[in-house]
Amino acid sequence: MLTQYIPIFIVLSIAIIFAVVTVSASKIFGPQRPNKEKLSTYESGMKPVGTTRERMSIKYYLVAMLFIIFDIEVVFVYPWAVNFKSMYAEQGISVFFSMLVFLIVLELGYLYVYKKGGFKWD
Amino acid sequence: MEIPIEYYLLLSAFMFIVGVVGVLTRRNAIIVFMSIELMLNSANLTMVAYSSFLGNSVGQLFVFFVMTVAAAEAAIGLAIIIAMFRNKKTLNIDEINILKW
Amino acid sequence: MQEIYNLIPFVLISAGILVSLIFEMYAKNSKRIIAWFSVFIFLAAGFHSLVNVDNAQLFFNSMLQVGGNINIFIFLFNFAAALVVLMAMDYSSKYGNNFGEFYILLQSSVLGMMLMAGAKDLFVIFLGLEIMSVSFYALAGLNRMRLKANEASLKYFLLGSFATGFIVYGIALIFGSTNTTSIPQIVDKFGELTHNLLFMAGILMFLIGFSFKMAAFPFHMWVPDVYEGSATTVAGFFSTAGKTAAFSAVIITLGSVFMHGNANIFEPYLVVLAVTSMLYGSIVAIAQNNIKRMLAYSSIAHAGYLMIGLASGNYEGIAGIIFYLAAYTFMNLGAFGVVALIEGKDETNLTFESYTGLSKKQPFLAAMLAICMFSLAGIPPFAGFFGKYYIFIAAIKSDLTWLAIVGVISSVISIYFYLRVVVIMYFNETEIDLTVQKSNYGLLAVVISVILVIIIGIAPGSLIDLISSFLK
């Protein structure tokens, strides 16, 4: 019964051994010169402790907006890619070009944002 | 074990009502907007549930379109909200009141 | 080949959007170029659809129809957009939304409207509606430095997407209870579906959502604020083409239901909305002092008149609505065009005081505005009268005489505030000076709309015959 789980246990034990060995190796062999910045919790460059209602720079929202739009369009590419073979057999190369047109339209939007300076941080 | 379709429909109807109540009672523009997104997603859940219940993939296709449209709306909405905030420094709907009859 | 030929308006506008984007990116003098380019494609698409009005055809697995009354709608959208571009050319620099994007957003909203008018599938209605609405939200707030425009677009966005939520949920329930989204298939099964509670709930939600877009009474809150806050040309576009698009989608769904011999079960809902919007719009408009708000409330009242046509549920009603929409588009655009011409820098000269004695200072503009006001009030020689006439006749034919009487009462009330503008312009004296910036293109657009109002008023028979011939 449990024999079918043996591969999982192997992976699990390798993962544990790898983690323990690498962490302890760097503790033992690496130079240790701690300072205040190094000891603080890693928070992607933000201050780890402070008020949670702090305001973010408005530039993040711009990037988020652009990301939402270009990210979600991929949703149309997935079903197309999955069904491509059967659609190709039925309708020929036009299946490919219809998606190409969609991507060109998307690319034009990207170019527009770029030209208007939507990606400039400053 | 098969979960009957009524459960999905009840859940999505509940989500929709939560969204409607949120729009009508909350006063922060962003939270109102999030409630609207909740309404759209409850419709998506209904669509997917019906789609698998009826064996008709049209419902799932519709969800793709609703998702992309919701993303476009989110982008436009965020842009409008940022423009509003830059000028007025508030997002409380009760204070956004220079236009009144 | 014939297939693609009939689709030219759609292809033209879609390709036009992309080409305009490239102009906006690379051309130095992009605003002028895009403005004239969009006038060109709007007129080309509009006249193409008018010439091919007889070629009805289905496209894309019968999801989209072109031809017949749909082409009349497409012509209306494109022609209204062309007039708005003409009005906006000089107005935009006065108001401060002089961006090339303004015209691109107009083009994309027209594309959405055309999809809505031609839809044969709930999918396409939804997509068209959203393409239109998203462009409208952006158009309302395009001048992002102006607080009023910010507020207008925020209100429009929040309430508009609230309505979209209802429409999407309604479509989900309709799909679940019918296992299809194709409108002809739903209409075929309609008789048995009326006993299905989920289906009825779905269609009610769909209707509520569209009542928002049509600006009917309990769902009208956004209308005055959005019209006042956004640019005058844009408000004119919302109130004419936007309303026409919403009604075209409702005609496609509801109209095809009762034109196939089904009973008009939506009558109670439509009657209540019609009566309340007519009376509310007409009465509250009396109290207004800002001409844009006055026109906004009058547009709520006009939504009420149009709903009488839906409530009567016969061929005459639908033909009357299409006729009324054509007349309303031109008379309202003319009125908004004059308001845009008179409006000064920083949204001044919008109250009635600025219009006192206009006949002495600007006799031509005053005459144009007076004709539009007479037509909006429904006074006989102009187009507005015949629109109301056909709709009231349709109501009487389906035994809704009392509704027609309420409509007449409401028009009588509305005469008060429309004619007040005329009285102020022609019979009141004032010392205040009014400087009007000259704008030849804006004047041209106003003159074209007024000429169309007069032509439709002189020869209403040919238009209504054309519309009815497609319905039978």
Question: Which descriptors apply to this entry?
Answer:
heterotrimer, A: 122 residues, mainly alpha, Methane Monooxygenase Hydroxylase, Chain G, domain 1, flat, B: 101 residues, Helix Hairpins, 3 helices, elongated
Can you offer a commentary on this structure?
The complex is a heterotrimer of chains A (122), B (101) and C (472). Chain A is mainly α. Helices cover 67% and strands 0% of the residues of chain A. Chain A has a single domain (2-115), classed as Up-down Bundle (Methane Monooxygenase Hydroxylase, Chain G, domain 1). With 101 residues, chain B is mainly α. Chain B is elongated. Chain B starts with a helix and ends in a 13-residue tail after the last helix. With 472 residues, chain C is mainly α. Chain C has a domain at 266-472. Helices cover 78% and strands 1% of the residues of chain C. The relative contact order of chain C is 0.10. The mean pLDDT of chain C is 89. The A-C interface holds A 105, 108-109, 111-112, 115-116 and C 18, 21-22, 24-26.
